[in-house]
Amino acid sequence: MAQLQNKHILLGITGGIAAYKAPDLVRRLREQGAEVRVVMTDSAKAFVTPLSLQAVSGFTVSDDLLDPTAEAAMGHIELARWADIILVAPATANTIARITHGFADDLLSTLVLASKAPVVIAPAMNQQMWAATSVQENIETLLNRGVQMIGPESGEQACGDVGYGRMSDPTQIVQALIEKQPKTPQTWQGKTFVITAGPTREAIDPVRYISNHSSGKMGYALAEAAAHAGANVILVSGPTQLATPAGVQRIDVETAEQMLNAVQQQLQQCDVFIGCAAVSDYRIAEIASQKIKKEQSDQPPQLKLVQNPDILQQVASSEKPPFTVGFAAETENLKANALRKLERKQLKMIVANDVSQTGLGFNSDSNNAIIFSQDSEQSLPTMSKHDMAIAIIDAIAKRYFDNTNPEIRAN
Ligand code: PMT
Fold first, then answer.
1. Domain with CATH 3.40.50.1950 in the chain
2. Which of 59, 276, 286, 316 could bond to 219 as cystine, CB 3.0-4.6 Å?
């Protein structure tokens, strides 16, 4: 089984003779299911060509902090956020010193500073250099900061010396990387989540519809976090541009009624329901069968709306309701409105987000929210939707598995 499935590995190649092993390393990482993007220092290019690394990774190699074309494709901050792991292999004495001292004058050192991803180094250098006090002090500093190290190995070196300093072989590096991965928390093993995400679309005529700004990012992040925590996840999604998270079953719908239908079909096996979709509260009473033409009348058309079913409310009031979690997207009176929805829709929890703030909520990568239950309140400060999803799934677990709460135990 591929043990680095869907891991985003940023491979930093620096200028040592061991750089010739980098294409093999990329191949072996990809064999384990990882997606690899390569960043090279200038001196690395003396040992291996960007073209061969592009061929084996499937992506253009990044090598310049100030290249506008590369920045337009995937900017360095985006690349720093993309990475799940930064692997520097080979890591020369020079690069190790630069990372230790926080340099940011080339792409690789900048990415190390700009990323929250764990950093793993595979040192490679002459044995005398490896033994040098400055190198050892730098290594100690990095290890104390949580940087992880693979190798180096002892043996005959390219220069003829014998001793520690050889980069570990690609197979050893990949194996060590797999072993260093945190084991998937299996909190939700055997439980099924049904999660709605994205907007709905309510047709006006064959070419027009009512919708909203939901991108699906929050709901997809929740699906990913729940699947990562061991749950079976069914994602009922309105139209989005997003890829289905690994291990998640996705059902595509357009309208609120289709979403309700799809959710109801999954309810039997559902332990936890999260309504994250921005469901249109109204739909058009009568959808025009042909495109509405301006010439048809002097007056603008009068669109009659009817109310859509409330999916969340129907789930929460079903005969054997799952643990039901709603969202509240508010532009004012966040707490009061969210608590009203918690009460009215008989929810176990509600995640209230203020969608009036630019850069948060709808169609953004970050969010800021408060989780309310009947008797608790937890603030989630501004963070990525990825991190927020993990926090929400954790908060649900605390309630769901709380055996001291009789109301929850009934689930
Ligand atoms: O998709 P993103 O761009 O990442 O943006 C995320 C988000 C802002 C859409 C998300 O964080 C969010 O707030 N989702 C809920 C949006 C919403 O419709 O809120 P509401 O307050 O109008 O609805 C309250 C709850 O009832 C929600 O759980 C909603 O899914 C549910 N609902 C609403 C109407 C309806 N007819 N059926 C429902 O199930």
1. 8-180
2. 276
Ligand 1, residues at Cβ distance < 6 Å: 196, 198, 214-219, 256, 275-279, 281, 308, 310-312, 326-329, 341, 353, 355, 361-363
Q: Which atom of ligand 1 lies at the shortest distance from residue 281's CA?
A: 36
Long-range contacts of 301-309 (CB under 8 A, 24+ apart): 303/204, 306/282, 307/281, 307/282, 308/200, 308/202, 308/256, 308/257, 308/279, 308/280, 308/281, 308/282, 308/283, 309/256, 309/257, 309/260
Ligand 1 mean position, distance from CA 274 (Å): 10
> Which residue numbers are catalytic?
159
* Residue 301 reports pLDDT greater than 60: yes
The predicted-structure confidence for 249-292, as pLDDT tens digits, reads as follows: 999 999 999 999 999 999 999 999 999 999 999 999 999 999 99
Considering the chain, tell me which residue range(s) the CATH 3.40.50.10300 domain(s) occupy: 192-410
Give SS3 for 209.
strand
Average pLDDT in the chain: 93
Does residue 65 or residue 140 have the better pLDDT? 140
Rounded to the nearest whole angstrom, what is the distance from the C-alpha of residue 327 to the centroid of ligand 1? 5
Run of H or E residues at 275: strand 272-275
Averaged pLDDT for residues 18-24: 97
Task: Read off the amino acid at residue 360.
Answer: L
- Collapse the DSSP code of 239 into the 3-class scheme (helix H, G, I; strand E, B; otherwise coil) and give the result: coil
CATH of 192-410, one of 3.40.190.10, 3.40.50.10300, 3.90.1170.40, 3.40.47.10: 3.40.50.10300
The conformation of residue 309, written as its DSSP 8-state character, comes to P
> How far, in Å, is the centroid of ligand 1 from the Cα of 194?
15
Residue 403: the pLDDT is 55
What's the CATH class of domain 8-180?
Answer: alpha beta
The distance from CA 174 to its chain's CA centroid, rounded to whole angstroms, is 22
